[in-house]
Structures are given as C-alpha cells and as structure tokens.
Amino acid sequence: MAKFENMPQAIKPTHIQGISLESIAEKYGTPLYVYDGEKITNQVHAIQKAFQGVPLKIKYATKALSNISILKLIKNAGAGVDAVSLEEVRLGLMAGFQPSEIMYTPSGVGFDEIQEAVDLGVMINLDSLPLMRKFGEVYGNKVGACIRINPHIMAGGNIKISVGHKASKFGISIEQLPEILEIVKEKNLRILGLHVHTGSDILDAEIFLRGANVLFETAFKFPDLEFIDCGGGFKVAYKEGDPRTDIQEVGEKVSKAFQQFCEKYGKQLELWLEPGKFLVSESGYLLVKTNVVKKTPTITFAGVDSGLNHLLRPMLYDAYHDVYNLSNPDGNTHTYNIVGYICETDTIASDRELSEVREGDILVIKNAGAYGFSMASNYNSRLRPAEVLVWEGKPHLIRTRETIEDLTRNQVVIDI
Ligand SMILES: *Cc1c(COP(=O)(O)O)cnc(C)c1O
C-alpha cells in the first residue's frame, strides 16, 4: 500500500506494471492516453490511510478523468464521486455507483437539471441563494441538500484554478451567511452538509485547514448536518523535485481538527473529500509520435501528432508537463520545443533537454491523467485519441480512437 508515497516518480518510465510503453504504442498507435491503474488505487489508499482516524468518504472529482472504466476502478478502491454536470452524474451511475455515493456540485445550472438530479437520487450541492430559494420552494425539507460556501480564501496554484476567493463565481459568500440562514428557516430546508472547494494545487495543510475551519465555525448554525465536505485540490509533482501535498500531514492535521469540531458539535459527522488531480494525474501518460524535427536559426522544434486539442493544460494554464524520448533514451541531449500540430501557437513544452529526437520517435508526456482527455476537443477537426488502462499487468483498451464518422455523426448536411 501507498508504495509511491514519498518516492520520487521514476523519471522516465519505459514500463508500466512490467509492460513496455513502446509495445503499447505499437499495438494501439499514437496519439494515445495510457493510465496506470495501480497508481490510481495507490493514491486512493494513501488518502484513506492518512485520514484513517475519521469516517472518511472520498468523492472523486469526475471531471479530472471521466472514463467509465476509470470510475469503476475508483469505485472498487472504495471511493464515491463528485459530479459537476448531469452527464457526469449519469457516467457515475453507469459505472455502478449508488446514487447515494454521488455528489452533484453544479455551477449555475438550470433548475431542470437540479430536478433531474434529485429524481436520480443524488446529493445536491446548492451554489447560490436563488437556487436555495427555488430548491426550498419545490422540496422544502423533503430532500436534504448541501451548501457550497465560498470562504474567501486565495488558494491554489494560480488565479485560473483558484475558485474560493472573493471575486470567484463559485459557492455562496460566507459574508452572506445571514441570508443563507434566513432562506433555510423560511423554506424549511434540511441542510445535511457544508462544502468548500477553494482551488487546485493546494500545497499546504494550513491553507486546506483554513477552508475547513470556516466550515467548522459555520456548522453550528446548521443542526441537521451529516457531513462536512472539504473539496479537493491536493497538489501533485509535475517535475523532479516539485513539492507535492504531503497527504499524510494534511490527513493528520485535518482529522484532528475535524474530530475536535465533531466533539463540540455533539455528533460524529462524516468528512468528505473531492480529490481529482491527486488520484489520476501521475497515472497518465500521453504517447505521441514525432512527425518532424525542424531547426530554425535559434530553436529546434519537435513537432508531434498531437497538440492542445488533446492536452490543453500547457496552453490554458501554462502548465508544465515533463516530456521524454521513449525511443532514443541514450542519445545525446539537445534542447527542444515540443509543439503540437494545431494551427495555433501550440507549445506542449519549451526549452527542454531531450535525448536526440528523430522523426518517428515516440515522446511521452507525463502527468496526463488529470484534465488531459477530459479537456480534449476536436479542434482543427482532429480525432481524439484512444485510451488504454494498464490493470493487473495487462493493457486494456478503454476507449477506441475516434473516426471521421464520430466527427460527422450529428451533422445534418443540407441540400444547398
Ligand atoms: C475540480 C473540482 C475538484 C477537484 O479538484 P482537483 O484540483 O482536481 O483536486 C473538487 N471539487 C470540485 C467541486 C471541483 O470543481
């Protein structure tokens, strides 16, 4: 258990669970997403172990990687799911989760979606005062719900992924607590949980605790609570030496504070967490093939058969993803910009030392498990890659490569 904890990632893995990535690329072609299922379950277990002193429910943030086979794997490891769309709720149900294991955390969706989710039997996370009012008018105290609080904390790796600060659209401002309480009373709402999610790439146990503390203080105003949901956002390492959330430390500190709170509250509640990136980021590898090596007077570009259509994070967040040359591990190193084939500025990684890249070489882009495939698009009318899960020492195709028929399926070609 927790084999990977405190262990630097193998820098340039050539094998996953004993299977060579080269053979996987050969068998399934490129571009290809490959996931190491063992790493995912190890991450689930690391959180379970760190929080073993409290009744913990892990609600995996489906939006990080939503393939049904991955969801099944996570279910088998003992977690539930957090869904941010009705479609993700449905994927969770398809993966075999009970409705009671699914949390629906919408962000400004129409009330028809809320009603559908209630009909499906999942927990609703109310994210605005108008939604609280409407929910109360329709369901009163017949359907319990959770409230998403915006604690006004600047947390997370950068402004684009920080969602719990004052100017953020998410949740209901903690300063509006009087209004929240008024609506709860007036509409006779049964509030079963309080929720914060402040952002992604949170390193510190202290920052995480600050969000939790806001909920602990607020909780006394809500007598029917069954759980406190502290959200996700644990940081993983993107490169050698990168700091990552010390989950054991967070677990110990938050568990202790939580148990002290429960004592004061007078009831043992459940602690919910919603890790996304932490569970799946390091499990994923995007394998791409080098189409061209282009030297300019100043830069050498390695152009590959993928791009921001398959992995948006470098262009969207300036995210750093490690890249290495799988096909020529022992070549002399040179400096490259690894670029995609999309007709936009499409830089996957710049200024990287790689062993010599030749046409046809397979490059591996690391940390591609979270917000990789799930953010992929068909921009430039490109097809989305296949996905392979390595589980119990075998590669399993869990999504076929798209075809031109997939691209045109819903188009209606008119006579013109
Ligand atoms: C995105 C999201 C998460 C997961 O964030 P990570 O940084 O991937 O851990 C958790 N909860 C909610 C509500 C989210 O929107």
TrEMBL record:
It holds the Pfam family Orn_Arg_deC_N. Its cofactor is pyridoxal 5'-phosphate. Substrate binds at R313, Y317, E344, Y371. Its EC number is 4.1.1.20. One of its GO terms (biological process) is lysine biosynthetic process via diaminopimelate. Residues 39-281 form the Orn/DAP/Arg decarboxylase 2 N-terminal domain. It catalyses: meso-2,6-diaminopimelate + H(+) = L-lysine + CO2. GO terms for molecular function: diaminopimelate decarboxylase activity; pyridoxal phosphate binding. This is Diaminopimelate decarboxylase. The lineage of its organism: Bacteria, Pseudomonadati, Bacteroidota, Cytophagia, Cytophagales.
